[in-house]
Amino acid sequence: MIAWFARNSVAANLLMFAIVVGGFLSVTRFVTFEVFPPSDPEVVTVQVPLRGATPEDVELGIAVRVEESLADLEG
After folding, report:
1. Could you give the C-alpha distances from 49 to 27, 46, 56, 60, 73, in angstroms and in order?
2. pLDDT, tens digit only, all 75 positions of the chain
3. Is 15 helix (H, G, I), strand (E, B) or coil?
4. Using CA atoms, how far apart are residues 68 and 46, in angstroms rounded to an integer?
5. How many C-alpha atoms does 45 have within 13 Å on its Cβ side?
6. What pLDDT shows up at residue 53?
7. Cα(16)–Cα(21) distance, integer angstroms
8. Which is it for the CA torsion 65, 71, 73, 75, positive or negative?
9. Stated pTM of the model
10. 62 close to 69: Cβ distance less than 8 angstroms
């Protein structure tokens, strides 16, 4: 088959063109492109790094303040 395509360059080029056009059409029709996909997160993770702090410093300095600021939110 490779030898036949080597002798018939027009057929090889037509086959290549058909494959490229078919790939382009399948991508444009069946693949959806979204910049921001829809999501409804049920869990929110908050990370506040504080290097070199003791657990007590993190609890008093960060965790309590974050919990107080989130206390007014529903859910």
Report:
1. 42, 10, 14, 14, 23
2. 889 888 988 999 999 999 999 999 988 888 877 788 778 778 778 788 888 888 898 888 888 888 888 888 876
3. helix
4. 14
5. 2
6. 87
7. 9
8. positive
9. 0.42
10. no
CA distance 15 to 20: 9
pLDDT at residue 75 in the model: 66
Report phi then psi at 28, rounded to 5.
Answer: -75, -25
Euclidean distance between CA atoms 16 and 12, whole angstroms: 6
Q: Can you tell me the distance from the alpha carbon of 12 to that of 6, in angstroms, rounded to the nearest whole number?
A: 8
Residue with tokens 């030898």: 3
Q: Estimate to the nearest angstrom the gap between the alpha carbon of 41 and the chain centroid.
A: 15
